Amino acid sequence: MKTKQLGSFGVEITDLDLSGDLDRTTMKEIVEVVAKNGVAVFRNQHLDKPAYARFGRLWGEPIDFFFTPDLDPEFPHLIRISNSPDLDPGRRDGAAFWHTDGSYEYLPAAFTMLLALEAPDVGGETRFADLVGAYEALPPETKARIDGLTVKHMLVGGKRGADEVKVKLDADDKERDGGIRARKRAAEQPEHPIVLTHPITGKKGLYAISGSPIGMVGMSEEEGLALLDELKRHALQPQFRIEIKAGAGDILIWDNLATLHSATPLEYSHEDGKRRVLLRISTNGLPPTHADRRPAFVKPEGVTSLKLA
Ligand SMILES: O=C(O)CCC(=O)C(=O)O
Ligand SMILES: [Fe+2]
């Protein structure tokens, strides 16, 4: 396994084959490389669906994604992302805003991975911001001010910047399973700490300060959103940013407990050289290699399964 640093965070990994059985020592090392660097791209993997689904389970419990039409019929934990013009307009560029996956859940996603089946010749990068580096660079007064604060989250709740796409969800579409799940989740307002200690690295970082936050516990809406906005502007400065393009066959994995990310808007096309198709897996909890750690999140008492009855 060869590693190359991509910036102040982020790493590219070559000379590693993820398709076969990975022994525990190797897998532990891979998890720690991702956690330490926030995001990693594993070049030239070309896994088939069974191998990829198996690999995904080495990162934790695969999530039940709220939008069922995107799920692979055979492997429901594989979520299809594509720029096909046949998709509903509301779903186009649905991830082109700064967010942390699953922060609208009581048990948010810890890792997300994308296996690129097709990549466009131009564009299609994923943008990342380092929330550990951003936290560490905060002035001591700000760290003291935010210490112990709690953020309220909601599915598609967050305020969007001018350059971010506002997601439209078919949350009211009673005909579709995805609509029902989305509606259930949109009704939930979990609260999560604004500063999180990472269960694997032990480092502190800002958590999910963009995408789903609708306010801060114990503050007026205006005051809470202003604080979140200030932290977001800080974290999106160029020194905390990188972009990575998943080429066909690559697996891009990020640590949702330590980063924000955003897709880049892309033309919707069926044409050769313009298609972008990926299979996504998100997991929560801890990878089996790190099951001895204290998890970042636990579901509170009384919260029933988020699965549909
Ligand atoms: O398409 C991308 O580059 C990122 C999509 C995304 O935000 C996700 O899969 O969670
Ligand atoms: Fe995402």
List the helices and strands and how they pair.
Blueprint: E1 2-5, E2 11-14, H1 24-37, E3 39-42, H2 49-56, E4 61-62, E5 79-82, E6 111-118, E7 125-130, H3 131-136, H4 140-146, E8 150-153, H5 177-186, E9 191-193, E10 195-197, E11 204-206, E12 213-216, H6 221-235, E13 241-245, E14 251-255, E15 259-263, E16 277-284
Parallel strand pairs: 2-3
Antiparallel strand pairs: 1-2, 3-14, 4-16, 5-16, 6-14, 6-16, 7-13, 7-15, 8-9, 8-12, 10-11
The number of helical runs is 6
- Structural class, by secondary structure, is alpha+beta
- Using the 3D structure, state the CATH architecture: 4-Layer Sandwich
Helix proportion range: 10-25%
Please give the alpha-carbon distance between the first and last residues. 44 Å
Radius of gyration, taken over Cα atoms and rounded to an integer in Å: 18 Å
Low-confidence stretches: 305-309
Give the domain tally. Answer: 1
CATH superfamily: Clavaminate synthase-like
CATH class: Alpha Beta
Succession of helices and strands: EEHEHEEEEHHEHEEEEHEEEE
Sheet with the most strands?
8 strands, mixed
The outline comes out as: globular
Family: Belongs to the TfdA dioxygenase family.
Enzyme class: oxidoreductase
Protein name: Alpha-ketoglutarate-dependent 2,4-dichlorophenoxyacetate dioxygenase
EC number: 1.14.11.-
General description of the model:
By secondary structure, the protein is α+β, with helices and mostly antiparallel strands. The chain has one domain (2-290): Double-stranded beta-helix (4-Layer Sandwich). Helices cover 19% and strands 23% of the residues. Strands 1, 2, 3, 4, 5, 6, 14 and 16 form an 8-stranded mixed sheet that branches. The longest helix is centred in the C-terminal third of the chain and has 15 residues, at 221-235. Bound molecules: 2-oxoglutaric acid (AKG) and fe (ii) ion (FE2). The site of fe (ii) ion has 4 residues, from loops.
